[in-house]
Amino acid sequence: MEKKRALITGVTGQDGSYLAELLADKGYDVYGFMRRTSADVPAPIEVLNDKGLIKLIYGNMRDLPTMQRVLDESKPDEIYNLAAQSHVGVSFLCPDETWDVNFHGVERLLKEATDRNKQVKFYQASTSEMYGSTPPTHTETSVFSPVSPYAEAKVKSHRLIEEYRSKGFFTCSGILFNHESPRRGKIFVTRKLTRAFAEIKLGFREKVGIGNLEAGRDWGFSGDYVRAMWMMLQADTPDTYVIATGKAHTVRDLIEAVAKSVDMPIHWEGTGLQEVGKDAQGVVRVEIDPRFYRPREVDALCGDWSKAKQKLGWEPSVSFEQLIDMMIQSDIREIGAAHRA
Ligand code: GDD
Fold first, then answer.
1. pTM score of the predicted model
2. How far is the CA of 188 from the centre of ligand 1 (A)?
């Protein structure tokens, strides 16, 4: 039987890297769509694991000719669109870029891909940010009420995916709640905190500045979530699924859990911008930095993943505590290795 071919946009990100490994392990030929920077060499990079091929090729969600070239070269059976300007806070600073990548990029890719192959299966990375509002838990049918340029563009793309589906194309949307790992970018709150507390623990740093302590998020493990993406494209019919753990924690809970995992329990003193988190010796380890507040915030998000469980047989395998432990241990190892080198 012919090997399946998959194209992953955003392959160099956290989810892209886990997904590329998963698909290569399943025997796919994987094409990774990678944005070129001025420092990059022109040649594509190929990585062969023992079962499949991962080939990185240059592409850009904002540039039609490169996108067309990538599709002609990779001839994918499955496309996983993970490329995005993915930082919600940055989207307030760069709304046009966010809109162009996160909506027009999807529009271009869908059109070019389906023009070339009507049978192509397309996964779109939708997001819990689309909800904006705060019912206790969110399902596939909860109302969207986006509050950031990031979320507005994602809602528009989500609608486009549904429109293509209604015309008979195999397009799926994963409404993914926050998902993290040791590969998470350090500007996202989980990794920022595991990195900071690893540095504090090892004596390389004294404290960390943080924004909104009361925001609540449903944090899961990226490795589990990319498995759900693949399962969606293997189902008999295309659909939309919430992927989450069903358990929410606040940023304050997160800080306490991260601090506890390095045996440095934190207690809180003060209120508002003056609130600080101190260790057992009374040293300030966390302080509020208003630069990390967002112009508009999504207060709380928690997902109901029962449809994914029923229809796909998917479930999360890593708890909040296990996730934090995995991330902090990895940061401690990484910092240790960098200082020994
Ligand atoms: N990044 C960051 N840095 N966030 C902070 C900080 C800080 O210093 N302090 C508080 N927060 C709060 C944010 O205001 C937000 O409420 C929450 O922590 C989580 O922020 P992020 O980790 O940046 O993630 P996000 O929820 O905005 O978005 C992520 O998850 C979405 C849902 O899956 C991103 O990965 C999005 O691309 C994704 O769609």
1. 0.95
2. 6
Top mutation candidate among 178, 191, 226 for ligand 1, by most atoms within 8 Å of CB: 178
Express each pLDDT in 278-291 by its tens digit: 999 999 999 999 99
Beta-carbon contacts of 29 under 8 Å, excluding residues fewer than 6 positions away, are: 3, 4, 5, 6, 52, 53, 55
Phi and psi at residue 55, to the nearest 5°: -120, 125
Rounded distance from Cα 181 to ligand 1 centre (Å):
14
Pairwise CA distance, residues 254 & 213, whole Å: 9
Buried residues in 42-56 as b, exposed as e (16+ CB within 10 A): eeeeeeeeeebbbbb
Strand partners, 319: none
The CA–CA distances, whole Å, from 98 to 105, 163, 288 equal 10, 22, 27
- 254 C-beta closer than 6 A to ligand 1: no
Distance of CA 259 to CAs 114, 135, 199, 237, 280, Å?
A: 48, 29, 11, 44, 11
User: Ligand 1 in contact with 294 (CB < 6 A)?
Assistant: yes
Q: What's the one-letter identity of residue 134?
A: T
Minimum CA distance residue for ligand 1 atom 18: 189
Based on the number of CB atoms within 10 Å of its own CB, is 213 exposed (0-12), middle (13-18) or buried (19 or more)? Answer: middle
Does ligand 1 come within 6 angstroms of the Cβ of 178? yes
The C-alpha torsion from 7 through 13 and 19 to 24, rounded to 10°, is: 70
- Residue-range domains of the chain with CATH: 5-182+219-246+299-317 (3.40.50.720), 189-214+250-298+327-340 (3.90.25.10)
Beta carbon of 181 within 6 Å of any ligand 1 atom: no
Tens digit of pLDDT for each residue in 145-179? 999 999 999 999 999 999 999 999 999 999 999 99
